[in-house]
Design brief:
72 residues; mainly alpha; 74% helix; elongated
Length: 72
């Protein structure tokens, strides 16, 4: 299996908003409510991405310290 086979397809913010708007229209949700939901969803996604990056950095740093025999 090649690395590119395991990549999650990237969607731009515009594509995510368009998909979200289509779903909201299908569900008959009011425009102001849908905007609040969209903002919440995008912020949660952003925070999850940041937490994932922080976890990866901490994991790499811990591994490096162990390999060099350092303590905190």
């Amino acid at each position: 299996m090649k690395p590119e086979d395991t990549k999650v397809p990237y969607k731009s913010v515009e594509e995510v908003k368009a998909d979200f708007d289509a779903k909201v229209t299908e569900m008959n949700i009011e425009q102001d409510t849908s905007q609040l939901l969209l903002n919440f969803m995008l912020e949660e996604n952003r925070q999850a991405w940041i937490r994932g990056k922080e976890f990866g950095w901490k994991k790499a740093w811990t591994w490096k310290r162990k390999s060099e025999g350092q303590t905190a």
